[in-house]
Amino acid sequence: MANHNQMGIDTSRRNLVPRPLSDSERAKLDEFIDSIHYSARYSDSEYEYRHVQLPKPMLKAIPEQFHDKTTGTLKLLWEEEWRAMGITQSLGWEHYEVHEPEPHILLFKRPLNYQAPAH
C-alpha cells in the first residue's frame, strides 16, 4: 500500500477507518455506476493523475458519513470506500483532493510507473 504521507494526502480529511457500505446503500449507488466518467491520465515528474466525475445526483445517494460538512464536499475516500461506491480503477490510485466548486469531481493520483505489490 502506498504511504499516504509520502504522497501528501491529508488523512485527517478521511474517515478514521474505511466505512463499509450496507447492501441498501450500495444498491442506491448502483444506478449511477454506468454514468461515472473517468478522465484521461495526465502526469508530472512524480505522479500520474486522473479525475473521476460522478453524476451530480449520485452525491445525494452517498451516505452522509462520507461527506465533509465543513466544505460541502466528500471526505477524502479510502480505496475500499471509493471502490464500494462503484468507482473502478487499476491499483495504486489514491483519492487526494476534491474540487470544491464541483464537488462531484474527485481527484486521484498515484506514483509514476506504479507497480502493484507482488503477492
UniProtKB/TrEMBL annotation:
The keyword Transport belongs to this UniProt entry's keyword annotation: no
GO cellular component: cyclin-dependent protein kinase holoenzyme complex
InterPro entries, A to Z: Cyclin-dep_kinase_reg-sub (IPR000789), Cyclin-dep_kinase_reg-sub_sf (IPR036858)
Function comment: Binds to the catalytic subunit of the cyclin dependent kinases and is essential for their biological function.
Name by which UniProt lists this protein: Cyclin-dependent kinases regulatory subunit
Domain of life from the UniProt record: Eukaryota
Positions of transmembrane segments: none
Family (UniProt): Belongs to the CKS family.
GO molecular function: cyclin-dependent protein serine/threonine kinase regulator activity; protein kinase activator activity
SMART domains noted in UniProt: CKS
Record keywords: Cell cycle, Cell division
Pfam families the UniProt entry points to: CKS
Region described as Disordered: spans on this chain: 1-21
One BP annotation, GO: cell division
